[in-house]
Design brief:
Length: 459
C-alpha cells in the first residue's frame, strides 16, 4: 500500500520515488524560502539558508532540488555536504543564516528520505510557523523572483570542524585523553561517522569504527535500539572496549553499549549526560513528558528542577532557551547542551559520557548502576480523535489522585511511577508509556488503561 507523504512540524518525510520526488522537494524549498522572506521583510540584503544531508543515496538529488527551490524565490543556498543534523544547526547560527535545511529521514529505513527545516535560531519551526510553511506549499503561493534576483549557491566545508571545536569546548580534553579510552563507534554508514571519529581522535580515544563510511547503505536497521545493535555489542566485547556508541543516520540520537557489550538503553544517554552536568552545578533541565523519571531523580539530588514539555525536539529546545537550562533532551538518546547548540547532538552525548568516565574513574556499567533505573512499557493502539478524547477523560476519572500534566495528552505522575497517554501527530493512534520502579506496578497501570479502552465506544 502506498504511504502518504508526511508533513509535520519537523518537516517532510516520505518514500523516494513514490511520494517524495525532486519536484516536491523543489516546491518545499520554494515554500520555505517564501516563508523566510515573509518573516524577514525588514532585511534588505538577500537571505541565506544552510543545507546539509545525511548519507542516503537520494540525498544529493533532493538537496539540489531544495536549493533550486530556494534560489527561485531569491534565497542564497550554502551547501554543507554530508553532515549531521546538529552540524547543520550549528552552521545556521554560526553563518547568520535565516534558516537551515537537512535532507534526512533520521532513523527511518533506507527507502525513506525527508526534508527537515530549521529557523535562524537553529530550532525546528514551532507549530504555527510550520502550519504557515505547509500552507504556502499546498497553495503553491511562491514569491518567485526574476533572473537578477535569483539566489546563488555556494559551498562551505567547515561544518565538521566547527562542530568538533564547539563540542571540545564543553569538556576537559586532556583529562579524557589521559584515559586512552578504547571506543567502538557504529555510525550505521550515516552522516556521523567521519566527524565523530575525528572528535574521538581529538579526545585521545583508540577508536574501532564500524559502519563508518557515509554510503547511506545501512549496515543494519538504522534506529539505535537493542535489536539493531547486536553487531556493535559483539565488537565491544571482542575488542574489550571501554564503551560503544551508536548513532542514527543523521547523528542526533545516541545509544550506548557498556564495557560488557550490554546495550544500556537510549533513556540512559540523557540520564548520564545529566549526571555529569549536575555533578558540577545545579540549575534547570528540560525534557519531554514521555522521558524517563531518571532525570528527575538526578536533578533532585543536585537541588535542580526539571521542566517537562510536549513531545517534539523544538519544544524541549525552546524551553531550554527560555529557562536557561544547563542540560536537556529526549529519552530517545537525544542530548541537548545549549553551549553547543539548541539541537539534539550525539557528539555532545559522547563527549559528556567520556568526561563522566574520565572524572570518576568508573566504568560505564558502574555509572549506569548508580542511576536507579525504572521498568518501562511502551504501547500504541488505534484511536481516532473522539476515542482519544474519551480515553483521556476516563483516565482523569480513573486516576484522581495523580499529578496531571495536560500539555500533550495526559501524563499522570504517581508515587511509584507514571504513565503518559498522547495522540500521534501523524496517524490515528494513541501512544502509551508507563514507567515504574517495580514491574508489577507498571503492569497495574497498563491494565488500568486496558480497562479504560474497553469502555470507549467503537465507531
Ligand atoms: Mg535522527
Amino acid at each position: 500500500m502506498a504511504e502518504k507523504l508526511i508533513i509535520s512540524i519537523s518537516g517532510m518525510r516520505g518514500i523516494v520515488g513514490e511520494n517524495l520526488t525532486s519536484s516536491i522537494a523543489a516546491d518545499y524549498g520554494r515554500a520555505f524560502g517564501t516563508f523566510l522572506r515573509n518573516i524577514h521583510t525588514d532585511k534588505k540584503e538577500k537571505l541565506s539558508v544552510c543545507i546539509g544531508r545525511d548519507s542516503r543515496p537520494s540525498g544529493q538529488m533532493l538537496q539540489s532540488a531544495v536549493m533550486e527551490g530556494l534560489c527561485s524565490v531569491g534565497i542564497d543556498a550554502i551547501e554543507l555536504g554530508i553532515v549531521t543534523t546538529p552540524g547543520v544547526g550549528i552552521m545556521v547560527r554560526e553563518s547568520g543564516c535565516a534558516g537551515g535545511v537537512v535532507i534526512t529521514a533520521s532513523h527511518n529505513p533506507a527507502q525513506y528520505n525527508g526534508i527537515k527545516l530549521l529557523l535562524g535560531n537553529g530550532i525546528a519551526p514551532p507549530a504555527d510557523k510550520a502550519a504557515q510553511i505547509k500552507k504556502i506549499f499546498s497553495d503553491k503561493r511562491f514569491s518567485l523572483v526574476d533572473s537578477p534576483n535569483c539566489g546563488q549557491i555556494t559551498s562551505n566545508e567547515q561544518a565538521d570542524g566547527t562542530h568538533i571545536t564547539k563540542v571540545l569546548a564543553i569538556v576537559d580534553k586532556e583529562a579524557i585523553a589521559a584515559k586512552k579510552f578504547k571506543v567502538v563507534l557504529d555510525s550505521v554508514n550515516g552522516a556521523g561517522g567521519r566527524v565523530t571519529k575525528k572528535l574521538l581522535a581529538e579526545l585521545g580515544c583508540k577508536v574501532t569504527a564500524i559502519n563508518n563510511e557515509p554510503t547511506g547503505v545501512f549496515a543494519h536497521v538504522p534506529e539505535p535500539t537493542a535489536e539493531n545493535l547486536k553487531g556493535l555489542c559483539e565488537v565491544v566485547k571482542a575488542e574489550k572496549a571501554d564503551i560503544g556508541f551508536a548513532q542514527d543516520p543523521d547523528a542526533d540520537r545516541l545509544a550506548i553499549v557498556d564495557e560488557n557489550g550490554t546495550y544500556i538503553g537510549e533513556e540512559y544517554t540523557l540520564a548520564l549526560a545529566a549526571k555529569y552536568i549536575f555533578s558540577k552545578k545545579t540549575g534547570k533541565a528540560a525534557t519531554n513528558l514521555s522521558t524517563s523519571r531518571m532525570i528527575d531523580d538526578i536533578t533532585a539530588k543536585a537541588g535542580g528542577q526539571v521542566i517537562r514539555t510536549p513531545v517534539g525536539e523544538a519544544n524541549v529546545a525552546e524551553a531550554m532557551m527560555k529557562n536557561n537550562c544547563i542540560i536537556g533532551g529526549e529519552g530517545n538518546g537525544g542530548v541537548i547542551d545549549l553551549r553547543v547548540g539548541p539541537i539534539r547532538d550525539s557528539l555532545v552525548g559522547i563527549a559528556l559520557a567520556l568526561q563522566l568516565m574520565a572524572e570518576t574513574g568508573k566504568t560505564i556499567s558502574r555509572l549506569v548502576g548508580e542511576i536507579e533505573g525504572y521498568y518501562t512499557i511502551k504501547d500504541k493502539f488505534a484511536a481516532d480523535a473522539s476515542q482519544a478524547q474519551q480515553i483521556l477523560n476516563l483516565a482523569k476519572q480513573t486516576f484522581p489522585d495523580a499529578k496531571v500534566n495536560t500539555a500533550d495528552g495526559c501524563r499522570f505522575d504517581f508515587e511509584d511511577g507514571w504513565l503518559h497517554l498522547r495522540t500521534s501527530n501523524t496517524e490515528p493512534v494513541m501512544r502509551l508509556i508507563v514507567e515504574a520502579k517495580d514491574p508489577n506496578a507498571a503492569q497495574k497501570y497498563i491494565e488500568a488503561v486496558t480497562a479504560i479502552r474497553s469502555k470507549v465506544s467503537p465507531h
